[in-house]
Amino acid sequence: MTSAADQTTTTHDGERTALRTCPLCEATCGLEITLRPDDAGTERVVRIRGDREDVFSKGFICPKGTTLGRLHDDPDRLRTPLVRDASGQLVEATWGDAWREVDARLARFVEQHGREALGIYLGNPNAHNLGSMLYNRHLVRGLGTRAVFSASTVDQRPKEVSSGRMFGAVSIPVPDVDRTDMLVVLGANPLASNGSLATAPDWPGRLRSLVERGGELVVIDPRRTETAREATEWLAIRPGADAHLLAAIAQVLASESLVDLGRLAEHVAGLDEALAAVADLTPEAVAPVTGLDPDVVRSLARRLAAAPAAAVYGRMGTSTQAFGTVASWLVDLVNVLTGNLDRPGGAMFARPAAGSANTRGEPGRGRGLAIHRRHSRVRQLPETLGELPVAVLAEEIDTPGEGQLRGLITVAGNPVLSTPNSERLDAALAGLDLMIAVDIYLNETTRHADVVLPVPSALQKSHYDVALYGLALRNVANWSEPVLPLDPGQPDEWEVLAKLALIAQGAGADADPAVVDDLAWSSMASHAPDDVVAAIDATGRRGPARLLDLMLRTGPYGISLDDLVAAPHGIDLGALEPRIPEVLRTPSGRIELAPEPILEDLARLRATLDRASDPERMLLIGRRDLRSNNSWMHNVEVLVKGKPRCTLHVHPEDARRLGLVDGGEVEVTSAVGKVTIPAEVTDDIRPGVVSAPHGWGHDLPGVRLGVAGGRPGTNSNVLTDDGAVDAVTGNAVLNGIPVELAPAGAPAV
Ligand SMILES: Nc1nc2c(c(=O)[nH]1)N[C@H]1C(S)=C(S)[C@@H](COP(=O)(O)OP(=O)(O)OC[C@H]3O[C@@H](n4cnc5c(=O)[nH]c(N)nc54)[C@H](O)[C@@H]3O)O[C@H]1N2
Ligand SMILES: Nc1nc2c(c(=O)[nH]1)N[C@H]1C(S)=C(S)[C@@H](COP(=O)(O)OP(=O)(O)OC[C@H]3O[C@@H](n4cnc5c(=O)[nH]c(N)nc54)[C@H](O)[C@@H]3O)O[C@H]1N2
Ligand code: SF4
Ligand SMILES: [Mo]
């Protein structure tokens, strides 16, 4: 029996399969989940595999996707709110008591310190969560704070700002991997990460097919990554030098008359300024910084210009460095200069079915992106997209004075492991007057909370990737119903967020989250045609489903949520198509090739050119593993068993020089911290560079992560420096951290 409405097939013995999009990373794989009732009649996940009929993923799955059942069943996953009692212990509480605590503590806090003293941190899983995508804004408004922080400023903010300034509406072009002849990947390792700001399942298959059809795959990375191993060419750049390299590529294109904008010529502004800005940044001039042979760089520029279709794609590694915004801008500039922006096989814009600012309003023109409208209190780092850089969170808490942060709400975030100089932040959180966490675990961050509000597991929530489809390599839409019911008394995640918003507004502990939902609905509905509103009203839907239905029906394809319910494997809306000029939302109606705040930062870049590279100064970079997901999936036994993965990769030459041995503990010291971590000696890394993964370090007191605690690993963000940021966005520098290495236990020199 198949019922479209619950996207489920049931067999005679009570076993059923449900379909759901995986919410764990950006690849949006379709999952086929088999469930069977246990002896007590409770349904359990017995198997998860890739949905072969999913219109996008076609059966692809990674090891993490198979663990949603284990995450759901994890005994450490919180099912009851926790409240700090008079003795300082976090104890289980009923929902009623937890809300009363939240109400009392928030009211007292606001009375004592005012709303300016309250901050909020929104972590990465929010971007994979429809409820958060639709209701977090109401929470922020309800709190009445401007101290908003998120994981985006330890990640992609430089790309959002460069694209926002160039195209408006934060439209980010994605590499058209399936149709390209040449893909240049900088600072991304999609074979481990499964792609980022470029949503597609099965990167391994897509990249292999590029190489098999005779295409070029160039990977630029200080590490010979899993992706670099598949490449036709690996360039081991020095960390932090992507802006220099890309500027040199643009310089070669200009000086060798290889610039050919094609169809885009009439849609750009600032071409001459952009080229003038990089005119002195020749491959020779930047070589001491990049560590790359000028001839190799020239050849790369020429091949990019000559390829029938080519795409440059930069990610994490290019964002989380000192010139992250300049590098991100140059990626798109090079794509424009070679005529590859907005053409098949180049870098293109998705046209998502719902929720994109670039499918709303007047096509081809808009307000652009305003940034730097205010600055942080202590260090004067700039606002972008309504947020302050999370690199200033600790100092905003631990520096006394007018406007000091004294309270924090975290939603799906673990900044104690994920943000730079984590020991400082850890200490700062311990000193707060109020902290409330909305999370599924008692972990390194949430252990500081006075109230922890748990949310349902992924399998208990509906799903639609409203953020990620705007970055997809193919236009698709897929809706998932919850696979399992909510636990008795457990509110849905959006209800927790909405209720928190109401309590913060003084509505009291009994406030009804439906009030926020109805307000959200009426404000959206006021802009929609009457017949659409009436049709959705007639469905009786509430919550995220009602809002999404409106976004879909008023979106570019005019599909409805019922259409998606009837298509449990998703709807394929076709390959990406050229969208310029219609996609643009800049005031000029053109692609702004020379955005002022970004060009200004080239002066700072130039100042690095004469800095002689010091071979003795080791630089630390990050690393992702297919079986990890930032900091929060180390409590799943099948993902962490086996060979330890939290190791420091060291080149054999460096190991020899520094007296480090494979498997031996290394003491790593940076400007802000010190850790010990086992060495893994490998020539898959550029000499002078060492690499450690982030998200480990689960041995802090008060953490309730039984499995992760058994293999705690080392927190690499003890070493990253909250003082080091990208100037344009304040985004943290997480790669290229100067460190000193010594065998652990060796006498200090
Ligand atoms: N398995 C797994 N998947 C994930 C995640 C995870 O933790 N685990 N996290 C998810 C998240 S939140 C994100 S944002 C994405 C990120 O996805 P990606 O952007 O693909 O991130 P990484 O795999 O960290 O790849 C970054 C690469 O940059 C390289 N690098 C470091 N410094 C530099 C530099 O200065 N220049 C250049 N050119 N390269 C440099 C590193 O060696 C690394 O190979 O992955 C997502 N997917
Ligand atoms: N050194 C270094 N540091 C890095 C990076 C790096 O490459 N190197 N990568 C950076 C990047 S790209 C990112 S995105 C950040 C991530 O930074 P964060 O978002 O702060 O960290 P996560 O580990 O993703 O933590 C997610 C939190 O959400 C909780 N959670 C999981 N699912 C849900 C849910 O459905 N609802 C709720 N409410 N909570 C949930 C988890 O228990 C966990 O506490 O880390 C950054 N930090
Ligand atoms: S690649 Fe990402 S979306 Fe696909 S199964 Fe793995 S974690 Fe889930
Ligand atoms: Mo991220």
TrEMBL record:
Cell wall biogenesis/degradation listed as a keyword: no
InterPro entries xref list: Asp_de-COase-like_dom_sf, MoPterin_dinucl-bd_dom, Mopterin_OxRdtase, Mopterin_OxRdtase_4Fe-4S_dom, Prok_molybdopt-oxidoreductase
Pfam families the UniProt entry points to: Molybdop_Fe4S4, Molybdopterin, Molydop_binding
GO molecular function: 4 iron, 4 sulfur cluster binding; metal ion binding; molybdopterin cofactor binding; oxidoreductase activity
Entry GO CC: membrane
SUPFAM superfamilies, per database record: ADC-like, Formate dehydrogenase/DMSO reductase, domains 1-3
Keywords for the protein's UniProt record, in alphabetical order: 4Fe-4S, Iron, Iron-sulfur, Metal-binding, Oxidoreductase
4Fe-4S Mo/W bis-MGD-type domain mapped to chain residues: 15-76
Record's protein name: Molybdopterin-dependent oxidoreductase
